[in-house]
Amino acid sequence: MSSTENADSASDPDSASDPDSASGPDRTPPAPYAPPRPRTPPLPQPPPQPPRAPGAPRTTVNGGISFWYAEEGLPAPREPLQGDANADVVIVGGGYTGLWTAYYLKKAAPFLRITVLEQKFCGYGASGRNGGWLYNGIAGRDRYARLHGHEAAVRLQEAMNATVAEVVRVAGEEGIEADVHRGGVLEVAYTPAQLARLKAFHETELSYGEKDRELYGARETADRVRVADAVGSTWTPHGARLHPVKLLKGLAAAVEALGVTIHESTPVTEIRPKHAVTPYGTVRAPYVLRCTEGFTASLKGHRRTWLPMNSSMIATEPLTAAQWESVGWEGRETLGDMAHAYMYAQRTADGRIALGGRGVPYRFGSRTDNDGRTQASTVEALHGLLLRLFPQLSGIAVDHAWSGVLGVPRDWCASVTLDRATGLGWAGGYVGSGVATANLAARTLRDLVQRDSGQSGETDLTTLPWVEHKVRKWEPEPFRWLGVHGMYATYRAADRREVTTRAAQSSRIARFADRVAGR
Ligand SMILES: Cc1cc2nc3c(=O)[nH]c(=O)nc-3n(C[C@H](O)[C@H](O)[C@H](O)COP(=O)(O)OP(=O)(O)OC[C@H]3O[C@@H](n4cnc5c(N)ncnc54)[C@H](O)[C@@H]3O)c2cc1C
Q1: Is 66-181+241-306+410-474 assigned to CATH 1.10.150.120?
Q2: 308 CA from centroid of ligand 1 (Å)
């Protein structure tokens, strides 16, 4: 294992055994109407990776938001809000959801005055840290089928399939070079129990209309990617690998070019009808759209709305040609597995493997990480998982490790809402599937605002089953922390048992954990 270096000066983040030691954002709201600050100095850049002498250990950068910024550099901050302002639509959060919403609304109605308020910089959240799986998965589809009928869920799935193509289309139209490779999504099984789940999953996806999905045996799987012990896989064409930050930066630039105002370093402390309140002034607008995903708990009144679930990633050093020869993966599919605590990976454009998984799932009190730093134990676990999948890469160094937060609603269902009475809207709760979903959510928010303001009627999107879905809040602490940690401890135990026993059935304890968690 390579040594670990922090990209910032803060103390170690929390560990599972010490939930209270978590470092998180400063929750003390600054005094209202404090004098506007000058431009916030940029965050320290992660140190460049020095060339490695043969045999010398390589340093793992931990944090610095994510590996994607080590390549791209952290952006120069845009101006914060400078006092009270008015707009037609104010969007809180400069991730994919907020920026896509601004993009589609401004395109549809160029006369609208749209302001985006971002607490740090656009792409500070999951949109600047994710695994770059642009794919057609959406959290909650099966529950929506139960609530609204199978046909409604098929429509939702078809909208997601089309969304993958839509993101690629707009990126092309706007000249956003985001290392997009449309290799589809390959999910592999490497235990008999995983294979049983894989087959069931494959059948389910076919039933939602994915006629172009394929099921592969061990040999066909190895022809694509040589994952140790793989016994089968399922592949869908509805997926692409991309560079998250290149997409994000290009999108932010496109939004600005359309005439949308973006204020960074501007935390919104409270959202109420027609008001987004910040320490530097209040933006008043008939529509206030909350696009804050895993950070939602920091807003007044939202502590238990969506749980900030951690996901952590590592990026290896670039593989040599011989190493790639041993791995295969020429189709550059996004790669996942069927473990209960699943992993996701991509072959990056510069020839590395970026791989993610759960790590410490949740920080006590809905706290978030410190600029992407993750626990040393998580880095070790992900490195171990990488070598379990690709033992032929033994000795490979990890160049970067980081983490971020997803938004998880109590029923694990993504949703989009615009409340007609108040003009308050929101989208998110994507769990781990937000790169494409945020785009669909944004187009839906556009249609909802247009419908509400009388510019259009119902559309194919406003009638999708995830629109205006209601969900209860999470339990108060310590039950929230105990529940999530218990659930993931159970998943890990189930995964271990399935590997050691080679049982053909999914572990019953994992099914029990699913039920208790409300999934
Ligand atoms: C490590 C990791 C890997 C992932 N991998 C994948 C993947 O491969 N494929 C996939 O589909 N999904 C993946 N996801 C999920 C996906 O990245 C997210 O669902 C998606 O980016 C959410 O976009 P968003 O704009 O809703 O939220 P975010 O990108 O989190 O943006 C929210 C923004 O709001 C800002 N903000 C928050 N609170 C405030 C406030 N009070 N005032 C002002 N601004 C505020 C934040 O700073 C942030 O910039 C991953 C997530 C993580 C963390």
Answers
A1: no
A2: 10
Nearest to 77 by CA among 227, 205, 265, 331: 265
Q: Which CATH number fits domain 185-236+308-408+476-517: 3.40.50.300, 3.30.9.10, 3.40.640.10, 1.10.10.200?
A: 3.30.9.10
Ligand 1 atom nearest residue 407's Cα: 19
> Comparing C-alpha atoms, which of 245, 242, 247, 253 is closest to residue 102?
253
Parallel/antiparallel/unpaired status of strands 85-86 and 281-284: parallel
Given a cut of 90, whether residue 38 has pLDDT beyond it is no
- Report the alpha-carbon distance of residue 447 to residue 458 in Å, rounded: 8
DSSP states of 164-177: HHHHHHHHHHTT--
Q: Is the CB of 313 under 6 A from ligand 1?
A: yes
pLDDT tens string 146-195: 999 999 999 999 999 999 999 999 999 999 999 999 999 999 999 999 99
Give me the residue label for tokens 């409270």: 270
40, exposed or middle or buried, with CB in 10 Å at 0-12, 13-18, 19+? middle
Cβ proximity of 414 and 261 under 8 Å: no
Lowest mean pLDDT among 26-40, 61-75, 290-304, 349-363: 26-40
Q: What are the sequence ranges of the domains in the chain?
A: 66-181+241-306+410-474, 185-236+308-408+476-517
The stretches of 239-331 forming alpha helices (DSSP H) are 244-257, 321-327
pTM comes to 0.90
Are 26 and 279 a contacting pair, CB within 8 Å? no
* Residue 203 token pair: 């059948």
- Rounded CA gap, 450 and 447, in Å? 5
Token reading at 492: 């890990």
Cβ–ligand 1 contact at 129 (below 6 Å): yes
Per-residue pLDDT tens digits for 145-156: 999 999 999 999
User: Does residue 103 have its Cβ closer than 6 Å to ligand 1?
Assistant: no
Q: Is the peptide bond before 38 cis (omega within 30 degrees of 0)?
A: no
Strands 275-278, 60-62: pairing kind: unpaired
Pocket test for ligand 1, best of 27, 28, 122, 127 (most atoms within 8 A of CB): 127
Contact by Cβ (8 Å): 248, 127: yes
